[in-house]
């Protein structure tokens, strides 16, 4: 049995590190967008219910299983799960707890590197005088590795490598390094968030303009915080709310198990889990809802927010909005906003390195330094393709399969293990061991019945979407290499047709009927309004790509619109899936060798 060579310095440091693990980019980038896209206040009730019946129980499960495995000298999920049940399969289920962290860190650090770059650009005044379209275009140029916004060749790659090096260096210092970052980063994150939230609360109608005369920050807040009880019968909203819980609490990843494995057998986990969970909810629900949406609504109007809510708002819109406060204040606002996102990101990405490091130390006696730099190398190997092929969709494949599907699968399986194989009686006793608070007995039955049922529903209802992703059902250009390019769908139905309104040898613009969402203040509901929309395709003459449609021609989805030499995004999406599969198999092989080593040393039986 390995001995513990690392430990937490204080309870405050542990809670801040755990909260930092949970408080990530999703709190500020994903939560407000999910809320807007799912009806604003209609999202809040399902979200809070999912937090109470799925999020909190999963925190209890992961904290207690981590501490339980830790007393046997195991600090990552393969052998933490193996200590809880007989059978070889569980150590390989535990592979998810290492795989997910490496795969997510690979692309998560890329987003984290954007925040570093944007802090720099905010300080030097890059965004001064830029229009909203210019700021959006800046982001598009940044993620294209062939362009540079600073003069540094392959700028996106350089910032990404710097970000990974910083993460790896801190990880090489062990839990002490992580704890120091959490003690500095979490208070600064909350401070920056409060400053920006106050601005969001006090903006009111002062940001209205001739272009957006009805802009009002309070509209954004009212939209987010007016409950819609009819959402309780909408499965789509429930599914979105359940999905957000995984992102916001970092459950189903294996990081919580790893952190908790360094606790003593009678250290409190019940209060710690609740404290970390509610700190995360404060940051997400309070600060996360008071910055992006109110400020955007205060300058651009609620209708614009509803129509354009997306992950990219933080980078493609916020720098423009900060410019409305004046050149000097815009610098501080940019540093606060992107600094906040950086600290939210790094406290999470550091946690992602600990399962691999813990496993390699336990099984192969690797030092912290060796474990950290090997993690950095794995993340770099997996992550560089997401940087280079970001626009081709490889990044999205990682986010979907590693950052979504893997979490749900692992959370469901670990809940079944805890409740029905390890046993709820032993599990409940483990949760309450050393607890400083008395947990409501109802949670015993929530963990036993409600949580696995909800997770099972999320899992089963997601399967059709998994199949569509593997089949690349979202595109008509399925061949990796083709000499014909087809029109994609103009709307979700796939039945709408477009009309050619502009055409040249390498350019075509199609007009089609679409609907946009607007907020009806009289009824307090989001309604759909018809309008004419456009889709533009640009082709490359160097690849012999040439438009084949003519002016005024009516085009249906899957109609040929160009010929030439095409390398379609399906190639890169397949590449992403294969890289993830290779990583999972590689970690499974490492676990297998560790098992063989344990058998040889007499620490495991055949």
Instruction: Count every beta strand, where a strand is a DSSP E run of 2 or more residues.
Output: 7
SS-derived structural category = alpha+beta
Give start-end ranges of low-pLDDT stretches.
Answer: none
Strand order of the largest sheet: 4-3-2-6
Kindly estimate the percentage of residues that lie in beta strands according to DSSP.
Answer: 5-15%
Q: Looking at the structure, what is the overall shape? A: globular
Number of helices: 24
Distance between the termini: 17 Å
Radius of gyration (CA) equals: 25 Å
Proportion of residues in helical segments: 55-70%
Overall mean pLDDT score? 91
Sheet with the most strands, sense and barrel status: 4 strands, antiparallel
């Amino acid at each position: 049995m390995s001995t513990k060579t690392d430990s937490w310095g204080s309870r405050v440091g542990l809670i801040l590190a755990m909260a930092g693990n949970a408080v990530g980019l999703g709190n500020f980038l994903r939560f407000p967008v999910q809320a807007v896209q799912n009806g604003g206040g209609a999202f809040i009730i399902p979200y809070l219910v999912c937090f109470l019946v799925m999020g909190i129980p999963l925190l209890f499960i992961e904290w207690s299983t981590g501490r339980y495995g830790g007393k046997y000298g195991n600090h990552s999920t393969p052998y933490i799960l193996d200590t809880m049940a007989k059978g070889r399969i569980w150590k390989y289920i535990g592979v998810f707890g290492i795989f997910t962290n490496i795969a997510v860190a690979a692309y998560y650090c890329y987003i984290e590197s954007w925040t570093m770059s944007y802090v720099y650009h905010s300080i030097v005044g890059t965004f001064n005088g830029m229009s909203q379209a210019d700021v959006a275009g800046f982001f598009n140029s940044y993620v294209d590795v062939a362009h540079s916004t600073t003069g540094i060749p392959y700028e996106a790659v350089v910032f990404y490598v710097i970000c990974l090096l910083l993460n790896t260096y801190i990880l090489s210092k062990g839990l002490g390094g992580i704890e120091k970052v959490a003690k500095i980063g979490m208070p600064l994150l909350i401070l920056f968030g409060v400053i920006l939230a106050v601005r969001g609360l006090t903006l009111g109608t002062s940001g209205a303009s001739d272009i957006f005369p009805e802009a009002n920050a309070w509209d954004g807040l009212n939209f987010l915080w007016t409950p819609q009880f009819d959402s309780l019968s909408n499965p789509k909203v429930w599914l979105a709310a359940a999905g957000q819980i995984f992102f916001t609490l970092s459950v189903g990843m294996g990081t919580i198990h790893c952190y908790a494995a360094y606790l003593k057998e009678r250290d409190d986990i019940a209060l710690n889990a609740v404290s970390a969970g509610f700190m995360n909810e404060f940051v997400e629900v309070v600060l996360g809802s008071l910055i992006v949406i109110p400020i955007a609504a205060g300058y651009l109007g609620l209708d614009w927010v509803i129509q354009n809510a997306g992950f990219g708002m933080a980078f493609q819109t916020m720098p423009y909005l900060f410019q409305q406060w004046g050149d000097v204040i815009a610098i501080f606002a940019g540093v606060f906003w992107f600094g906040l996102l950086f600290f939210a990101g790094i406290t999470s990405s550091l946690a992602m390195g600990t399962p691999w490091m813990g496993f390699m130390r336990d099984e192969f006696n690797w030092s912290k330094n060796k474990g950290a730099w090997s993690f950095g190398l794995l993340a770099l190997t997996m992550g560089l393709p997401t940087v280079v092929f970001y626009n081709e969709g490889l990044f999205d494949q990682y986010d979907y399969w590693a950052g979504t599907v893997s979490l749900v699968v692992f959370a469901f399986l670990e809940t079944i293990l805890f409740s029905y194989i390890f046993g709820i009686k032993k599990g409940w006793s483990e949760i309450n061991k050393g607890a400083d608070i008395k947990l409501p007995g109802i949670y015993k039955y929530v963990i036993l019945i409600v949580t696995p049922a909800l997770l099972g529903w999320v899992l089963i209802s997601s399967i059709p979407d998994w199949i569509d992703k593997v089949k690349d059902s979202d595109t008509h250009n399925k061949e990796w290499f083709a000499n014909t390019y087809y029109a994609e769908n103009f709307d979700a139905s796939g039945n709408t047709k477009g009309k050619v309104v502009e055409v040249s040898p390498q350019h075509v613009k199609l007009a089609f009927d679409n609907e946009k969402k607007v907020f009806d203040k009289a009824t307090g509901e989001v309604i759909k309004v018809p309008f004419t929309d456009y889709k533009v395709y640009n082709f490359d003459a160097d690849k012999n790509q040439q438009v084949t449609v003519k002016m005024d021609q009516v085009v249906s989805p899957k109609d040929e619109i160009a010929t030439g030499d095409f390398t379609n995004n399906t190639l890169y999406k397949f590449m992403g899936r294969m890289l993830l599969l290779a990583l999972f198999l590689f970690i499974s092989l490492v676990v297998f060798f560790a098992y063989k080593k344990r058998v040889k040393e007499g620490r495991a039986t055949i």
